[in-house]
Write a structure and sequence with these properties.
Elements lengths: L3 E8 L11 H27 L4 E6 L17 E4 L5 H14 L3 E5 L8 H10 L5 E5 L5 E6 L17 H12 L3 E3 L23
Parallel strand pairs: 1-2, 1-4, 2-3, 5-7
Antiparallel strand pairs: 4-6, 5-6
Helix pairs in contact: 1-3
Length: 204
């Protein structure tokens, strides 16, 4: 492996489509505004990490009207998430990267603690481990890094439950892979998570 690809999974930051669980607190427009801020912060940190190609894997496709007013930064690859549940989408993306002799960091845009430093450290972990994970306080994960591929990590996963990270860790163990578990992180998904936002992030 000579480089580490960062694949960022994101929805178009449109009212009623992105960050819908925050609509009761922020309104549809406010939730979409926050989604856009978090998308651009994540892209900035991924590019600043300078560890390999940054790929933005999106839904809907880039030619959809939902993206027409969003100016994405130069230097990123843009791909379509495609069909299926989250597991199917993550599986395809990870297989594609690893087939191209790259290790891969799979992340979303929900974690405001995601940083260039953290991404760089995760990539370094893959020099000595088969996988790296940063779990989130709600039982999911904000980052999964891999230098080997297995569909086991994505199929029949209890997505959107508190068992995602523990199930993933258990399955990595069953594969016999070495794993580095990084610091616990926090996603901003629900109104009670807004306390994790930086004071610099203005919403509404």
């Amino acid at each position: 492996m000579t480089s580490t690809r960062i694949i960022i999974f994101a929805k178009a930051p449109q009212p009623g489509f992105a960050k819908t669980r925050l609509i009761p607190a922020l309104g549809a427009a406010g939730a979409a505004e926050l989604a856009q801020q978090m998308l651009f912060i994540t892209l900035h940190e991924a590019q600043a990490a300078d560890i390999g190609t940054v790929e933005l894997c999106i839904t809907p496709k880039i030619d959809d009207i939902a993206w027409q007013d969003i100016t994405l930064p130069l230097g990123i690859e843009i791909t379509d998430q495609g069909e299926g549940d989250l597991g199917a989408r993550l599986e395809r993306a990870s297989e594609r990267a690893i087939d191209n002799f790259e290790s891969v960091l799979l992340i979303g845009t929900d974690c405001v603690e995601m940083s260039a430093t953290l991404l760089g450290e995760a990539a370094l972990s893959l020099h000595v481990h088969d996988a790296v994970i940063h779990c989130t306080a709600d039982g999911g994960y904000a980052l999964l890094g891999l230098k080997r591929y297995s569909a086991v990590l994505f199929n029949d996963m209890p997505w959107s439950t508190a068992a995602v990270s523990s199930t993933t860790i258990a399955r990595i163990g069953q594969l016999g892979w070495s794993l580095h578990i990084g610091q616990l992180l926090h996603d901003v998904d629900a109104p009670q998570d807004l306390k994790y936002l930086s004071p610099k992030m203005v919403v509404g």
